[in-house]
Structure formats: structure tokens, C-alpha cells
Amino acid sequence: MLFPLKFKPKESYHEAPRNFGARRDHGNRKHAGCDLYAAVETPIMAVEDGVVLEAAPFYLGSWAVVVDHTSFVVRYGEVSKNIPSGVRPGQKVLRGQIIAHVGHLAKINMSMLHFEMYQGTGTGPLTNVRNRPYMRRSDLLDPTPYLDAATLDAGGLGAMGETPLFAGFRDGSNQLRPWVVPFF
Ligand SMILES: [Zn+2]
Prior knowledge:
mainly beta
């Protein structure tokens, strides 16, 4: 599986409040995904080939894209409502394709990719407020080990909406050199 961003956020998705299972709503709910902090409009890539199941409003003015990746289903949550053309229910997406951008969460003024995974064996809506503590469909997965094992695609320079901050550095002759060792 490909990591959905071109970098690993410096704020770990292993730690609260970003981790899977973190307390929400004063302990009445557990966090159903991993939060990957990133700037608004950061490109989000499909982690595998797949078929779009849904693109719909999600939370605090953000949207979510749901993709069936065959061996699992991912809800890419808290993304911008400006979903790229080609990312509509029934359409195929390729591993590495930009399928959304990080959205802005109104009121709390934060931005992140909320990454949720499902085994794909369940039926019906992914959100199920009666199924505590996660309030999600029963085939919900902990995405942490998948993200840990994911391939980081630092990418071709300038390709696919590369964030200049992460692209590389200028050497003595002002050549743009890629980072050899990730620095974050
Ligand atoms: Zn979240």
C-alpha cells in the first residue's frame, strides 16, 4: 500500500488525539481512523488501485471520498469539497492518483486527512452511530499497521502537486537536489 501523502506528518498518528481509538466526545466515542495533519490543499493519493464508491459531505464542511481497493475499503475523510473530476462513484482510480486534497475544518480551524479503513465485508453505511464505541460499520479496521508498512512515494520532483517544502534542497550551484534521507 502507498502512503496517502507524499510525506509522513511530524505529528505522529500513533499518538493522541490523532491515533485510532483516541477518546472523542468526552469518552463517549473512540476515534475511528488516523489523523494525518497536513496543510489545506495538500494532495491525497489513492493508496492502491480501486473503484470510487462515494464522494459526499463528511464533517465540519469537509468531504469524504470512499474507495473500494478490493482487499479493503478506505474512507479518505476531511478533504476539500473540490473533488477532482474522474473521482466519481463507479469510476476507477489508480494507485498514486490524486483523488482529493486536504480540506479545512470549519470552527476548529484545523486541516488533516482523516484516514479510515474497512475490511470490505460489511454492508450499509460506514457510519453507524448505534455501533459503539467507534460508531462505525462492524468491519472497521485499525489503519495504523497499514500506514506503518505503507510505501512513501517522495515522488518525482514537481510531479503530481509536489509540495516545494518537501521536494529537496538547493546545493551550492543552485541545483535542486532531492532529499536522500527523510528529514521529518
Ligand atoms: Zn480523525
